[in-house]
Amino acid sequence: MANCPKTDSAIDEHKDTDSTVVGRKSSDGNTPLLSHIRSRTSGVVSHKRSSDHSAQILAGLNELRQTGQFCDVTLKAGSKTIFAHRVVLASSSHYFNAMFSHPVLESYSECVTIQDVDEAALVHIVEFIYTGDLLVNEETVETLLPASNLLQLPFVRDACCQFLQSQLQPENCLGILRFAKFHNCNDLWETTRHFAEDNFAKVASSCDEFAELSTTELEQLISSDRLIASEGQVLEAVRRWVGHDLGKRQKAAKRLFERVRFGLLSRDEIVRLGRSAEFLSSNPWCKDLLLQAAIYHLSTSNGEELMALEQFRHRRSTSEVLMVIAGFLDSDLASVETFDFRTGLWTTVPDDETVVQSNTSLFPAVPDIPRARSFCGVAVLQRQVYVIGGCINGNAIRFVDIYDTVENSWIRGPELRRKRDEVGVAVLGQKIYAIGGFDGSKALYSAEVLDVESGTWRSIASMSCARRRLGVACLDDKIFAVGGELDDQILCSAEYYDPSTNMWTSIADMEMVRRLPAVCGLGSRLYVIGGEDAEESYLTSVEYYSPETDTWYTVSDMNEARSASGAVAYGGLLYVVGGENDIVCLSSMETYDPQTDTWTVCSQEMKSARSGAGVAIVELPTNSI
């Protein structure tokens, strides 16, 4: 007992240090030291966690596996034998947990054969279980994903799906789509299906698996409201698929053609198909579909009853907008504006070049055209918008820029054979025509056509007279060139071009001379709108040409005089936008209803006034996806 005070003294000396001293227990079972600490630090808790403890455990277990220590199970797949620990496998996989927990042969067998799992995939999976590291690439993903499904390893499965998603291309997406469906990877399947729908035209033309789709698979794909492609591309894809094995697939053709929305085909496409004896003889059920589509296009009403039918309903992932490109306001413009027919709002890229849209618009803003210009022509073909010719800083150009509606970006196109300012442009029969214009020194008689497949322009027959500042539009199977100017003389003459004969034919003169008119076909009429007369007065007057009678008729005047404006037809109405009068360039737009012979000024104006702009109806992907 003599030593007790000394011990207490020793404890006293070290009470504020980290040294551990074992002393006599007090009556409550605690040492005097612990009692002293508790009295001074009541309520304080110290909690420490090793940041690398888990990694150290895994590394230690993997080392034991590699050296064969304490291993109690051997996995076999093919020719591979893998040593492992039951507890490690069971803690990582519900599959192994169930196997080792239930009274089945594998639960006590030292060697377990894993059926339906690739041997290399099993090696990768065991490595992952012991290390947390996973190698996913083109060589491993096809065996890893089904193995992860069977062995119930969600991390491995998700990693494989993410890798496949990152590799999506038009050439491989259908293979990945089938792979995802077979292995019940629903998220990957949905993502891949959307990719195929968004890139349908490229998928149909470049993916080998497209021709191997089943009837049901193709029907589901082309029935989608999300599909981003022109309806002509959808129709052509179906025809190629049927033709790949005509004997076996002819019976499915009717079912598939009924899913093509014939009402969304262009008028040129409808006419071409209606005149194709080969198409109609091999697909007789298409006659009624083409007839309904033709009636829809010829109707001057809004066609609301037909729009309710699937054949005429726009796919929800795309919709048509009025696009106004470039033009002139103090200088050449590069900006592009789109008018959403559903909301009545304009969308553009603001001055800071940030791509934005209005809160109620479903469409992204279109980026500026790379080369500002004015008095250019615009054509739309196969979901691409061609901006052709015009002038830059007053100089005539041959340049062509192409806007890809799917990629929302611009690329350079094949240049014209000649410089063409104040040019007329039209699309007919899957070809683009550039007519007349001004080459910097004289008005032009000549015209040329772009073969989109070869990417080359070639000359066609020249007009009967040279025309600059003319108006050009299509009606039926012909391209009309109207008015314009020649050697300071403003013209009232007009003529049309027939591609089947490569000839121009004169028609009756307009009731008055017009340069820089807006020209547009609607129903069976060719409308010529505004422009300037011989006294260079800006016009509000409008007239239309009837091919049936070879006669011009006047209709109600516009609310505002316009020259160098643009005109399009949509929903049975004419839309006339921009232009200039004797005071200013215009940002306003007005519509004409042929049923009531009335003009109505739209409440919303463009963000920028402009004359000499390119104008077209364009089908754009929406942001509602």
Give an overview in words.
It is elongated and about 105 Å long. The longest helix has 15 residues, at 53-67. A hairpin with a 4-residue loop joins strand 13 (400-404) and strand 14. The chain has 625 residues and is an alpha+beta fold. 30% of the residues lie in helices and 24% in strands. Strands 8-7-4-33 form a four-stranded antiparallel β-sheet, with no helix packed on it. Keywords: Kelch repeat, Repeat. This is BTB domain-containing protein. InterPro entries: BACK (IPR011705), BTB-kelch_protein (IPR017096), BTB/POZ_dom (IPR000210), Gal_Oxase/kelch_b-propeller (IPR011043), Kelch-typ_b-propeller (IPR015915), Kelch_1 (IPR006652), SKP1/BTB/POZ_sf (IPR011333). Residues 1-33 are annotated as: Disordered.
Brief descriptors of the model:
30% helix, alpha+beta, Potassium Channel Kv1.1, Chain A, Neuraminidase, single chain, 625 residues, disordered N terminus, four-stranded antiparallel sheet
Write the layout of secondary structure elements.
Layout: H1 4-13, H2 32-40, H3 53-67, E1 73-77, E2 80-84, H4 86-92, H5 94-101, H6 105-108, E3 111-113, H7 119-131, H8 141-151, H9 154-166, H10 173-182, H11 186-198, H12 200-206, H13 215-222, H14 231-244, H15 246-257, H16 267-274, H17 277-282, H18 286-298, H19 304-307, E4 318-325, E5 328-329, E6 331-332, E7 336-340, E8 345-348, E9 377-381, E10 384-388, E11 391-392, E12 395-396, E13 400-404, E14 409-412, E15 424-428, E16 431-435, E17 447-451, E18 456-460, E19 471-475, E20 478-482, E21 485-486, E22 489-490, E23 494-498, E24 503-507, E25 518-522, E26 525-529, E27 542-546, E28 551-555, E29 566-570, E30 573-577, E31 589-593, E32 598-601, E33 614-621
Parallel strand pairs: 1-3
Antiparallel strand pairs: 1-2, 4-7, 4-33, 5-6, 7-8, 9-10, 10-13, 11-12, 13-14, 15-16, 16-17, 17-18, 19-20, 20-23, 21-22, 23-24, 25-26, 26-27, 27-28, 29-30, 30-31, 31-32
Helix pairs in contact: 4-5, 7-8, 8-9, 9-11, 10-11, 13-15, 14-15, 16-18
